[in-house]
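Protein in question filed below.

…
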Amino acid sequence: MESHISRATLQKAERLRGQRPFQLLRQLGSTHQEGPLRVRALFFQVRVEPYPIRVAFSVTRRAYRKAHDRNRFRRLLREAYRRQKNDFWAALPKGELWLWWQGESTSSPLSLAAVQELMKRLFWQVLRQCTTF
């Protein structure tokens, strides 16, 4: 487990895949939004997977009509998460957290620093809600 924390990579096993996790996030997850970034989160008291946080990233066509704009924003989301992943893992209490980061429309392109700041604020909102249960 310790080897996962020291590496700032995004492994395939850390990503949410398949229909079932997304159905559960839509039905049972809480939604938080700030600016052009939305996160759906679902916290489990018991960890089943080897990774404490599992993530997914999406950007809708409605938000960004051109594929290269959607791809750029999705890359920014992944990079912002990857850089802060160790801090997020350290702050998470025992259990497992699923996060689905979604990009919404914005009038001007965001920098990596701006996306990181938004992501950090939303993560702390989610974490406060998780610890109140």
